[in-house]
Amino acid sequence: MVLKVLTLAPVLVVGICFQVGAQGKDQRKLQDEFVEAYCKCVEEHPAPHALQLMSDSQEQCLRAFFTQHQDDYAHILQKDHGRFDNYKTDAEKRAALEREIVRNAIDDLVEECSAYRKSIVTYKNYLFSQFMREQTEKSLTRKDELESIERVKQTVSSIKEPNKLANAYAMIGVMYEYVDEKEQARKYYEKSIDLYPTTAAKALAALLKTERD
Known about the structure:
It holds the Pfam family TPR_8. By secondary structure, the chain is mainly α.
């Protein structure tokens, strides 16, 4: 069996790197509106298959939502300007706020939006099929599968770039889910998020949590 460390493809809005930040009442309201609007968009524009989980129409819906809420941006940035002082321009501050809202919305999207949740499940199942596509060639024992994962872990230990290593950690988490090692999967999703947080790992971790609860 050959397990390949694949690059995480964009999953709807979950290819975004985020920064963890607090959110005020106004931002929470905007986040709730985002969840509702984006979920509706996903329902109306489903991706045709697992490799196209981010379509142009969905990206347009994402941009349309934030374009429609420019006044809300200005209000939040003015009210909480201290949180965004590391960014030099207004455009950079708006982009940071967008990433934060999307990141904070992932748990709600996974729990409340069946279309979004289905897309993540479809994507994860696609990755499963890629990892284990050679299983039809021979019968694999659980020991074989775990040993293969250990070999992948040894391979990725040489990766230096934080974003690529975080990506590999997320993929190892998916592998552990496949062999029903949920706690190990959770740990590797958390390692990915701690090292270089993306909403891809966040969505996979949130989905795992709902399946464990």
